[in-house]
Amino acid sequence: MSQKTISRETFKDWLADGNELAVLDIRAPDVVGYASPLFATNLPAERVVGELSRFVPRKLVRTVLADDGDGTAERLVEDLAAAGWVNIFALDGGIPAWIADGADGALPTFDTPGVDFTLAVKDERGTPVTLVETLQRLRDAGEDVLVIDTRTVAEFAREHVPGAVSVPGAELVLRFKDVVPSETTQIVVSCAGLPRAILGAQTLIDAKIPNKVSYLHDGTKAWTAAGLSLETGRTRTYGEASDAAVEFARRQIAVLSSADRFPEIDVSTAKAWAADPDRTTYLLDVRTPEEFENGHLEGTLSSEGGQLLGVAYRTIAVRGARVVLIDDLIGARARIVAHWLQRRGYEIAILLVDFNSGKLSNVA
Predict the structure, then answer these.
(1) Does residue 246 sit in helix, strand or coil?
(2) 339 in helix, strand or coil?
(3) 62 phi and psi, to 5 degrees?
């Protein structure tokens, strides 16, 4: 074992010590699948040299690369160490060695698995649930019921429950009044399985939306298991928020965040944090990718809020880092993401920006 390789036991200690730590699973995405056994950021080996600084902004952070046991991580560590990454290490034996005894479910993880977190939320809050059979019965009876799919628009377009409307999780409160004009409409929140559906439903409940709200148990997975066909394409998606929707969002997001306490910072503070040599800070723009493309603060990353809710580890590779959530002046998306991420142990601050002013600053 080289000086730049760490043992399984040392890695366990690092995962538990509370200090800043970056962990990257460098295997191919099709091998990793939905989530690494570590629930760590997946950055394929061929992209590590060119993109590591995007995920790990400071070269001094302890960084662990885990491969499939073929030595790729050790070779990359040598190159990166020569380029100034002085605290970068390879996990001895990679992922195969990490899960060799078959106890991966009992091993520590980099991030809390989304299913575990959301099931805990469900149990704590008693989030109402609707089964596929119940939804079908309501529809057959002509009840006023609407399915809202909280995944990304791209995921929605691949397949969704017929008749559903696409509203990614962080957009729920901002777009709600335009999508659901009537308070008597029953809302069933769906995703591919459980995590984003549960958080979406509980977000609306915490915001005290007047409608009856539940989540669809196991989402599209349960729909197909019941022998029902899914719909494809961008059949129904949210649009530009109307003035009425914005005012509704202002009121309800204030309710959602009434017990939350997050510092609101300005651009100069964000810039100082980003330049701090002793602490890692992520500057994440949680608006839609389209809004980000139309104008954003230089030095920030586009990180769609709905995705951060369920799979924060895909973006936030440094545990213990500060996370600044950037949004427009309404702040509905940032406050929804903050509402949930702080419960997962993230240190959150909010930066609200007038993106229509034409005066966008550099922050890094």
Answers:
(1) helix
(2) helix
(3) -60, 125
Instruction: Give me the domains of the chain, ranges plus CATH numbers.
Output: 5-110 (3.40.250.10), 115-256 (3.40.250.10), 267-352 (3.40.250.10)
Q: What does pTM read for this prediction?
A: 0.93
| pLDDT for position 2 | 63
CB atoms within 10 A of CB 43: 22
Q: What is the largest CA-CA distance in the chain?
A: 68
Please give the Cα distance from 283 to 170 (Å, whole number).
17
- Name the nearest CA neighbour of 212 among 252, 249, 183, 191: 183
Q: What distance in Å separates the CA atoms of residue 61 and residue 85, rounded to the nearest whole number? A: 8
Q: Quote the pLDDT of residue 162.
A: 97
Distance from C-alpha of 51 to C-alpha of 80, rounded to nearest angstrom: 12
Find, among 132, 127, 87, 131, the residue nearest to 227 by Cα.
132
Given a contact cutoff of 8 angstroms between Cβ atoms, the answer to whether 220 and 187 are in contact is no
Asked whether 163 and 82 are in contact (CB, 8 A), the reply is no
